[in-house]
Design brief:
107 residues; 4 helices; alpha+beta
Length: 107
């Protein structure tokens, strides 16, 4: 399964912990974990995952951005009313739209 499936099954906190641990030793409950060129292959006993760590990091960063705007519904409201962004509205609106799509793909 892909990175968004990992988030669906384990949640945002576990994904954040996993990405933060990636730089050092990863202490997880997974029975099989193989890391090669930032590609993660693991098995939690019932489901096999195969994804790139950068994909999981992007999802976690997107979740963090959406949370800064007060959660998914508030972020959607901000995009619906881009005047709130001021002069930098296009760049922020584009990034927030991508972040919203990332977070929704994990629901």
């Amino acid at each position: 399964m892909k990175a968004n499936e990992f988030v669906k099954n384990f949640g945002w906190d576990e994904a954040r912990i996993f990405t933060n641990s990636y730089a050092g030793d990863i202490d997880t409950a997974f029975k099989f974990l193989k890391v090669k060129d930032k590609s993660i292959q693991m098995n939690d006993g019932s489901i096999e995952y195969d994804f790139h760590i950068d994909d999981l990091k992007r999802l976690v960063e997107s979740w963090g951005l959406v949370e800064k705007f007060g959660g998914l519904e508030n972020a959607k409201d901000m995009v619906a009313h881009p005047i709130c962004f001021g002069d930098a509205n296009f760049e922020i609106e584009d990034r927030l739209n991508k972040a919203i799509a990332d977070v929704e793909s994990c629901s």
